[in-house]
Known about the structure:
Helix content is 31%, strand content 16%. The chain has twelve helices and 15 strands. The protein has helices at 31-49, 58-69, 71-79, 88-99, 105-113, 123-135, 145-157, 161-169, 175-198, 396-401, 420-432, 468-483, and strands at 202-211, 217-227, 233-235, 242-244, 278-280, 293-296, 300-301, 311-316, 319-325, 332-335, 351-354, 359-360, 364-372, 377-386, 393-394. The strands form five sheets. Strands 10-14-13-8-9-15 form a six-stranded mixed sheet. Strands 6-11-12 form a three-stranded mixed sheet, with no helix packed on it. Strands 1-2 form a two-stranded antiparallel sheet. Helix 8 (161-169) packs antiparallel against helix 9.
Amino acid sequence: MPADGDAQARPVPVRTNHKPPTSVDISGDDKVAKWKAHKLRWEQYSKISGLNAEGVDPETKKAEFLYSLGTDTMMVYQNLDCKPADTIEDIIKLIDGYVLGETHLAMEHFKFNKCVQGPKQSFDDWLREIRERVKTCHFNDIENVENTMIRNKIIFDIHDKDAQRKMLEERDADLKRVIDIARSCESASQHLKTMRGTSEEVSKVYASSKKQSQGKRSYSSRPEKHTTSSDIPLKCKFCKKKHPMKKELCPAWGHSCNACHKKNHFKGSEVCGKTKKIHAVDYESDGYDTTDEEVISMVKTAPSIHEKAVYCEMLVEDTPVKLQIDCGATANMIPNSLVPSPIALKPTDKTLKMWNNTTITPLGECVLKVKNPATRKKYNVLFIVVEENLTPLISRSAAEKMQLITINYEQFVNVNAVTQDTDAEVQQILAEYSDVFEETVGCFPGTVHLTLKPDAQPVVCGLRKPSISTKGQLIDTLKEMCEQGIIERHLMKNRNGSVS
């Protein structure tokens, strides 16, 4: 046996009943807290298991520590700059750099400020979560709290999202660096706007009017002539002509409209307040049963591809019928061919007045069950039945009650319709002042004297031939005025000697 002086130091075997710490997961959002808890448990385990005692084999202690990390954390360690000669302190330092080095203090502060108590979370659980959050914020290590708070405010609430992204890309960005990023991004945005503004003036490409022999058009660019959007002739809404969009080139600029008497536009332009697109509107009562005449009105507007009649499909007595919604109609109309035979018609003394002043005598009226397939609502609708095969109509009042249309009455002043009461007042006025409303034309007493200016020069106006369509009506009107003594006929000798 060797002497005591020659005895070599042997590793002290470690025997304990305590299990090593369980594996740790450092891939989640709370990896910092988990890693710190694992290091604390390893330190406690080292003390109670005797791993910190003198003479303990370092390789055994290292193997024990690596075993406690678990498979996932072990793979992370292997991907780091690890060496076979690393001690436990070296391994902890490498993992600290991986876990703590990726910690963004600004984001940790953001998470801490957003840590609110949940609706079903107890106060103790919430307090525990707050304490865990504050550990990763390192508030005790902050030298200048004011600059840190300003930095966080800039990162959290800056409007420029590109600048915010650049700030978050740098983990250790201080207040000075954050301000530099914000200013550089703002300056770059201004430069981009300037560059894009000057690039809008591009050369116009002109197409050659002559075709080549291959049947292709040749195009030539003229960079020497730069055009902007204001140089392109477009239809002007002030004068209705085409010219470059500059007010100095508009013929209407500085002139007054003959219709509305406002400046800088012509009569009939889009901006003229007196422009009338409606050619004919027939208006009658709002549907009350005060007259024996119902109106089927129609609005004829200027032709446009966007103006189409509005139709809806309803189930009339369980039969699909295409109905037109007519806001000018005061009665619901349906042809007799669409009324089921079992339904009897009730007599009516009403007449239908069309938009062109023609009248139609209906066959009668009936109540039909109408169902809206879209809303599945049912209605009992009173229809006027006609013999002619006309388009079925839904009146304005019925369309409103069925919620097919909505009229904003508060947006205009409603005009009261003529009722029987007002008609009686009109008849009373006509009877009281009958001499004023006689068909014959009367004369005022005395002689009318017209005073002219002394220097007035007489002007001979040329005669204009009436149109063929109005010539007959004009002759009848002139004869009637001659018979009533309003005008007198004077014979005039023509150049050829005839008298007319």
